[in-house]
Amino acid sequence: MPGNRRLLAPSLVAVLLAAALAGCTARAAAPTGAPTAPATPSPARPITVAFAGDVHFTDRTSGVLDQGMPGVTALMGGADLAMVNLETAVTSGGTPEPKQFHFRAPAGAFAALKAAGIDVTTIANNHALDYGRAGLTDTLAAAAQARMPVVGAGPTAGAAFAPQIFTIRGTRIAVLGMSQVSELWQAWRATDTRSGLAMARDTDRAVAAVRAAKKRADVVIVYLHWGTEYQECPSAEQRDLARRLSDAGADALVGTHAHVLLGDGWLRHTYVHYGLSNFVWWRNDAATNDTEVLTLTIRSGRIISGTVTPAYIDRTTGVPAAVSGAAAQRILAERRRVVGCSGLSAAPVAE
């Protein structure tokens, strides 16, 4: 972990594993029991939180588990908190679900992300249960073994919708993960008595989770798997959910799933990035090698800005690296273009 990190996250494998098995998602730096009041944010130097898109460890990216990902570290390691979407089951067992694509990775996946500077991952996506609930159990156990905080899945709905809470220089930041993808969503959703994913299609529960997190944290961020593949403009369903989660108190909404870059900006007081595209990506596809890292800056318990760093996914390794010059300008021009259909503003709108 980079030396500039100051995260109060779970520190014992036993705590994480016991929480997963007992139906209580581990809360980074937050005790169980009664809700914890938000801390008093420090006016000291601002906090940076970096987000990137979908990660796989198969085909062209399988080798990076041993080789490392210096490109990822360079892009995200300098932030106070860094997060990606791990879009695979971490298991060698289970049974394939009735769907077209199936992804699995060895138990070292979480350790590799941690070594690259990633602090928390969401597993609320349309591949976490590719190998059924047995595969999900293995995934949660692998995360616990690697001491990697995860969000978006768990042994019950309460655990799946629970946040990880990080305290950084006196500011409490709650991170949640949810999926809005329709494929197998009813079969894969977590319930009060069944393991699974935090499905944003359980809208009342999603809204309640954000409201509950807002009572415990200064800043609430929801990482969402949503949208339509290869569509650059957010769907009506995405826009509606964004409004509802914003009303519930979300300070930022960050998304993936479309495999292309979508627009970002402000929805009233909430910073929204509708789609970060792929990041550490298994498939060599010219349409999906452009990517970017979103960095949110927080001061005095409020998000004050969002900036992107353009990057390109190497065609051989599948690992991204920052770009400059003409390549950067091309990706930034695409960003400006897709913002046009996002319905988002360049600055927060007073209410």
Question: What is the topological layout?
Answer:
Layout: H1 13-22, E1 47-55, H2 64-67, H3 70-76, E2 81-86, E3 89-90, E4 104-105, H4 109-115, E5 120-122, H5 132-146, E6 150-151, E7 153-154, H6 157-160, E8 164-168, E9 171-179, H7 185-188, E10 196-197, H8 203-216, E11 219-225, H9 236-248, E12 252-256, E13 264-267, E14 270-273, E15 278-280, E16 290-299, E17 302-313, E18 320-322, H10 325-339
Helix pairs in contact: 1-5, 8-9
Overview of the structural elements:
- The protein contains 10 helices and 18 strands.
- Helix 1 (13-22) packs antiparallel against helix 5 (132-146) and helix 8 (203-216) runs parallel beside helix 9.
- It is α/β, with parallel strands linked by helices and 351 residues long.
- The strands form 4 sheets. Strands 1, 2, 5, 6, 15, 16, 17 and 18 form an 8-stranded mixed beta sheet that branches. A 6-stranded mixed beta sheet has the order 8-9-11-12-14-13.
- Residues 1-35 have low confidence and may be disordered.
- Strand 5, helix 5 and strand 6 form a beta-alpha-beta unit.
- The chain has one domain: Metallo-dependent phosphatases (Purple Acid Phosphatase, chain A, domain 2, 4-Layer Sandwich), CATH 3.60.21.
- It has helices spanning 13-22, 64-67, 70-76, 109-115, 132-146, 157-160, 185-188, 203-216, 236-248, 325-339; strands at 47-55, 81-86, 89-90, 104-105, 120-122, 150-151, 153-154, 164-168, 171-179, 196-197, 219-225, 252-256, 264-267, 270-273, 278-280, 290-299, 302-313, 320-322.
- The protein is globular, with a radius of gyration of 18 Å.
- The longest helix is centred in the middle third of the chain and has 15 residues, at 132-146.
- Helix content is 26%, strand content 26%.
